[in-house]
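Example 3.
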Amino acid sequence: MARTMAEKVWEEHVVRRADGEPDLLYIDLHLVHEVTSPQAFEGLRLAGRPVRRPDLTVATEDHNVPTENILGPIADQVSRTQIETLRKNASEFGVRLFPMGDIDQGIVHVVGPQLGLTQPGMTVVCGDSHTSTHGAFGALAFGIGTSQVEHVLATQTLPMAPFKTMAVTVEGDLKPGVTAKDIILAVIAEIGTGGGQGYVIEYRGEAIRRLSMEARMTVCNMSIEAGARAGMIAPDETTFDYIKGRPHAPEGAEWDAAVEHWRSLRTDDGAVFDKEVVLDADALSPFVTWGTNPGQGAPLDASVPDPAGYDDPSERAAAEKALAYMDLRPGTPLREVPVDTVFLGSCTNGRIEDLRAAAEVIRGRRVADGVRMLVVPGSMRVKEQANAEGLGEVFTAAGAEWREAGCSMCLGMNPDQLKPGQRSASTSNRNFEGRQGKGGRTHLVSPLVAAATAVRGTLSSPADL
Ligand SMILES: CC(C)[C@H](C(=O)O)[C@@H](O)C(=O)O
Ligand code: SF4
């Protein structure tokens, strides 16, 4: 029978199947960070268990790290404890860790792909919802909770409830200035933040095929914001070229065998998805959010919507509430919304291509008066590469702050935060109330829009400069 890619990868990993019980899947790669691992390691310690496969487990420090003075002690007590606990656990259980100051340290979803740890056909888990990022390689990648983290540490397996399949097909060609971020914001606006619930989404179609690996990661990263369990893209030459030569990539005859297998993972012709959504890439334009969930977005050319225009009472109430929090008036052109902060970074858009795209816009220009721009590479390797290409200089010459790697202002778990009432254009993936700091207001945007907004001081695209 014709099968989807997700079904193939799942089947290859079933180690136990019994009637009325979830399948038990083997896990190929377990990524760990400081926030969701302490109780899991503590559970092992209490039970006297070792980590079953330390060689398939990799940890990094990202959420709680300050992005300045990284070699000094962490001022915040909670953050310091989290980081120290991870270091202690990693050394006690023999897990490889990339601590602050290490060239391989960075956001967990940037580090895995960068090292070639993430490969097609794998099952990848992490105690983090944006693990869906790794699906860009044709891996089945799930975010899991802390008790599941403990289960995987102990057994390298995980019982998983069955999923449904959804195809999101993006046909056609993106116009210049329109990016992967705009695709995924438009997808979420279309299907809603609950539209993906229970599904593994496969992104396909011409426009997806043409995306670089890093752009594909941006798309898959936000699958979870549509409520999906995972997002995937079939591996192809773009994928293989990206992985080849990375530290953990297979070599020689093993590489050839791996590629042959990876090619077989694509969804068979005639396979049936439980749900299908089709989008036209030509019709897309730069997209920004105006509300307090990632589905409350609109083209930058549009205006703040009028809640009265929603037929559905709960959507109307949500829009009213969002506009009150965001301090926005219906009918205001989105291009006229002023920001005081621009954040370029996160596991959605903190990779080298994101920085390059933004630097191209910023080069030779200045960040607008009264605007603070934070540029935070997703990993120290990204920072190193950006510096080698002169991008760090472009950002600092424009008046932006050029930081060390971490989650930074994506979420309020470290010193990089909005103050109450501040408003950001942010390349991250979540915009709920207080996400970037108590009382902060977030507009989700692409790196191109972030850069243009930094220059103009109001939500803008490079075409406006
Ligand atoms: C802290 C962590 C558990 C969380 C997640 O799971 O996504 C974080 O990464 C986020 O983006 O909100
Ligand atoms: S960058 Fe943001 S979304 Fe990604 S793992 Fe860190 S906090 Fe979560």
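Residues 62-63, 107, 109, 128, 130, 346-347, 407, 410-411, 428-429 surround iron/sulfur cluster (ligand 2) (CB under 6 Å). The chain has three domains: 5-160, 164-235+259-283, 287-464.
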